[in-house]
Amino acid sequence: MRSKVGLVVLFLLISGPVVAQWSPIDPFGNYDTTLGSRIHAAMLAIYNKTFTYEQHGVVASVIVPGLPQWNGAVGTEDDANPMAPDYYFEIGECTKTFVATLILQLEDSGKLSIRDPIYKYLPSYPNVDPGITIKQLLEHSSGTYDYIHDDPANTLLIDAYFANQSKRWTVDEILQNYVKTRVFTAGADYKFSNTDYLLLGLIAEKVTGNALSAEIHRRFLAPLGLTHTLCCWSDSLPTGFAHNYTAAPDEFTPSNDYFGTDKSAQLTMANAAAGMVSTPSDLAKWADALYSWKFLSHQALAEMLAFNKWTDGSYYGLGAARIGFSTKAFYGHEGSLPGFHTMLISNPSDSITVALYMNSDMDSTDMNCSNFARAIVNQIYSPNATVRAPSSSTKNAAFVYPNPVSETTCITFDQNISGEAFFTLYDVMGHQVRMLRDASGTVGHHSLTLLRGDLAAGAYHYVLNWPEGTRSGNLVIE
Fold it and tell me: Global pTM?
């Protein structure tokens, strides 16, 4: 259970033989139908570069507007049989995206404030400062001892994976017995702590009066039809997991395979910090919905994506990390449990989402989630491809680029009907902060230029109304 939010921007273009596998319905008439096969070839190229003892399996699910969701895999699930895209896997710390969204929904509905101290909702626990705020838990600035990573003896991991695999841990048991002295005063620094999210899960249960798993199912999983996503500290464990391997240090040492391990202790011990199970297809649908404002108000999502810079140079918000690939800003999370490694990334301005996992916890030069995600992103945004990513609900082309914005962005659109066009920008509170007007009314290609001026950094919402239709979306100013 480790967090890896400090990813660097690298560039990698991998070519390979193209076999058409992705046959989209093409409402715009300008999509590259080879994208699926190019993604698969790029993944396979990385896989083939790795040492044999590191070659397990990788699965990806990709959402691009106008194309069917693509699911694909390379490698093997058990060192012999091909990996399949629909195996279950432990999503690790990506669980935190669900918990953080639930807490922010409760704030949206007036049930709590993330500025509240936790003593308003929870009893006292040894070594947990009752004065820390909900926000400090969400952003990992609480200073609370991490019951997993701060224990040099790995007590709970050893118990869960070896000593007592069928044990069902409770959050209260962990908080009472396995949380030691805080590592810094609340608000003084940022440090990842799984304990923070155990506490957030309890707060959600206190405020709603329901089990955390029930609220996650009711609010998120059921509306999206995510039937292969489970809260496995409470839900029954499914069958259909891939084998999951720990890293072999060299070619002469076999990997440990945890396939036969009873996952009861693993996932109840991880709980609200990392205890969910999913498939890449489900996880991609979740991120696509979350970061396109389907579950949170504009203000709440802006709070989630207001990033603090950690001492290692990475950026973390409220249950979300900022992850850079190419020139695009992606939001999401990474996660792992022994034998699984997950990455979830989404670019809401282009409506691009990628979820992928490996059935090993490798972190080598080649065999890691970052390299595979980067290769996928580079295929989507390849300058040689014709893939576009409009988020319009209409078939009329209009684009806002670049997004995120440093100084200026250009709004381009075509119209075959005479009439005026208006581009309106709103802040997270829904207040209009800028309007651009094209009064020419002529048929043809049009463009408007938005100057940043005195606009503060943050997330905004825009609406473009022109004779051909309406386009709305999100704009980030850096």
Answer: 0.77
